[in-house]
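Re: folding output
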Amino acid sequence: MNKALKLGIKLLIITAVSALVLAFTNSVTEPIIKKAEQEKLNESLKIAFPEGKDFEEVKGKFPEAVKGVYKADGGKGYVFDVNSKGGYGGDIEFIVGVDSENKLTGFSPLKHSESAGF
């Protein structure tokens, strides 16, 4: 075997092992990451609608900017998960709460890539 073929086989083995390790790591950490994201969403829902205790996700078709709608306490208000395009560091996802009288009850940024403090 020539030197280049041996080097290619070694590289193939290294990349295959690396891919397996990454796949295993992803499968182990994925549920933990999803749980943390859900906890952050629940915390943001309570900030956006402080009087709310139970939040039920509303299914349906919404504009592209609306990622989700949650009904608070059976209809006392709604919380909207909105994705705003065009932030300096990328898209900004935030939560906005509105009561049954269409008054803003709260606001909470959820995900962004802006500079610290913004």
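--- second protein (sequence, then structure) ---
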Amino acid sequence: MTRDQPYGLVSHAVIVCEGEKIAWVGSENDMPAVFSDHDATDLDGRLVTPALIDCHTHLVSGGNRAREFEMRLQGASYEEISRAGGGIVSTVKATRAASEDELVANALPRVDALISEGATTVEIKSGYGLDVETELRMLRAARRIARERPLRVLTTFLGAHALPPDYRDHDTYIDEVCIAALHAAHAEGLVDAVDGFCEGIAFQPSHIAKVFDVAKDLGLPVKLHAEQLSDLGGAKLAASYGAMSADHIEYLGEDGVEAMAQAGTVAVILPGAFYTLRETQVPPIDALREHNVPMALATDANPGSSPLTSLLLTMNMACTLFRMTPEEALAGVTKHAARALRIADCGTIQAGKRADLAVWNVDHPAELAYRIGFNPLEQRIFGGHS
């Protein structure tokens, strides 16, 4: 890869893979002679990019919320549905009733949709159990997916997602259930990071801080659903904990952008939820650019506000709805998505990194964001294997 060309393109390129890793990459004319005896595959001039990464998903859940989709079309808001016992709480009921096997079986078709578009790494959150037993079951199911499919799965504990119907006090729920579940999940080796939903219909910054303090004590990195429906200062709070990312951020203010820039916190842009909820407040893309905050993109795949399992469509939405450039969109589902997950061995095509690659039947990288409902993937390579 080179920075001299848009998208880092290298013409007449050669990528040398040895085992699971990339040994060398560059122009064909510059390839060292030591690699000349390797078996070669001619890709006929196709575009090769890093494999795609979905850095924010809720792929493990029970049931669906198609009825709520109808309700929104009839005029009900996300908040109204939530306060009426729908929204996240309705998925909690279905998820609590599902076995681990059922959760895995429900998730695999969604996972397969992402794999079919060149994804090799996905993040999967808990957060639809809201009790110790079901939160652990969700995380176990997420870990199992990596054994069922050729895929890297990173798990995120999201116990602070919503107040369950069997609790009326947020502080009591955080103390008695959320933190207990986090300790149990960590002890079982089920958690790679900790998340929360900081919003008026979910948890206040003081509640999130309690959870993040425990995460810090356990040595776990944090991220946050922040500023999706209002500005509660969630991104600024997350940045104060050195958060991996702040996600959604439609209502993010300048102070939050500055705090993220100083902390190195990635902005995860989620156009699927914006589209599904028919929101009008767009994230501050220009301010994020001005302050050099990396922008990742993700599906936010979930049964309620973003039933989306296409990173290609996510790229198109980011460009069409938020005016991100196709180059920014591609970086958002590769190198910046890797940064949002703090994984350094993928996301770019460089010697020493994993040979996680996607081969595309396109003439130009912009086609990946330009087309709607079309999948030009020719080949997906995961750890050197197609």
